[in-house]
Amino acid sequence: MASTKTTTQRGLGWEHQKQREKLLRAHVEGTPCWWCGEPMYLAQGLAADHSHARAHGGTKADRLLHGLCNKQRGDGSKDDLRPAVTGKPLEQAQADQAALGVRVMPWP
Ligand SMILES: [Zn+2]
């Protein structure tokens, strides 16, 4: 998944930086993360996220997530399995769903 593109080439340029700063300024310490449900603190390095995933046409970041949670979320296809919903880590939720016979991700 290595990419040599810069954030600007991916469309995450100046506008995104400004939007992230705006979200960070408005952030209230301890606000629960939409993805994992844990409190968020600026010192953790929060990422600006698109509730309408960019992979599906979202253009403007409108909320903050933990940096790691933002990476886990990826293109938004696993939103239903986020820890805040299932109460368990993403890997566990995916394993449980797979065990139920529901294919979560395309087999490699
Ligand atoms: Zn989180």
Please provide a written account of the structure.
- The chain has a two-stranded antiparallel ribbon.
- It has four helices and two strands; from the N terminus they run H-E-E-H-H-H.
- The protein is mainly alpha-helical and 108 residues long.
- The chain has one domain.
- Zinc ion (ZN) is lined by residues 33, 35-36, 38, 65-66, 69.
First and last CA, distance: 14 Å
Q: Which cofactor or ligand species appear? A: zinc ion
Q: Mean pLDDT score, rounded?
A: 86
* Count of DSSP strands: 2
Radius of gyration: 15 Å
Helix percent band: 25-40%
Task: Give me the secondary-structure topology.
Blueprint: H1 14-26, E1 46-49, E2 63-66, H2 67-73, H3 83-86, H4 90-99
Antiparallel strand pairs: 1-2
The structure holds zinc ion (ZN).
Zinc ion (ZN) is lined by residues 33, 35-36, 38, 65-66, 69.
